[in-house]
Amino acid sequence: MQAYAGWWILAAVLVGVELTSGTFYLLVYGLAAAVAGVAAWLGAGMAAQLLTAAVIGVAGTLALRHWKRSTARPEFNVQDMDIGQTVQVESWQGDRGQVKYRGALWDAEVESTGVDSTRPLVIRAIRGNTLVLGN
Predict the structure, then answer these.
(1) Who's near 2: CB < 8 A, 6+ residues apart?
(2) What is the band of 120 on the pLDDT scale with cuts at 50, 70, 90?
(3) Maximal CA-CA distance, the chain
(4) Who's near 57: CB < 8 A, 6+ residues apart?
(5) Domain residue spans in the chain?
(6) 80 vs 50, 75, 88, CA distance in Å?
(7) Can you tell me the distance from the alpha carbon of 27 to that of 84, in angstroms, rounded to the nearest whole number?
């Protein structure tokens, strides 16, 4: 079997496996193997084929990592969906208390001194397992 055929079979296998993973990294390596196969078909020696595959693989990996970082979205914070929700006061003394939220008792504190605990309280922030409340 000719060297270029081996490279192209490797490229086809890598691209085929990539179709099941969806990470794009195997696509880069498949492309590197295909280009190394072209180099072999053109008569390059084994060292040049391996160097071609390595350079394209490394450059493609770095480019893919850069692309993924530049298009990354900030992770959705689960706590963000709690902000603005109303809670039911169970017990309150001074600036701290316990409130019922999502069927469980939570420790709570007020966000500022002007908060009236007799009026409905809304979640303004979450610090650890303590809800920060305001009106």
Answers:
(1) 40, 41
(2) confident
(3) 84
(4) 28, 29, 32
(5) 3-70, 78-134
(6) 50, 11, 19
(7) 44
* Nearest to 131, CA basis, from 116, 114, 110: 110
Alpha carbon separation from 58 to 28, 31, 41, 108 (Å, rounded): 9, 12, 22, 52
Show the tokens assigned to 94.
């001074």
Percent above pLDDT 70 for the chain:
94
CA 88 – CA 101 distance, rounded (Å): 7
* CATH code given to domain 78-134: 2.40.50.140
pTM score, two decimals?
0.55
Using DSSP's 3-state secondary structure scheme, residue 93 falls into strand
> How is residue 50 written in tokens?
């391996």
Backbone angles phi, psi at 111, to 5 degrees: -80, -25
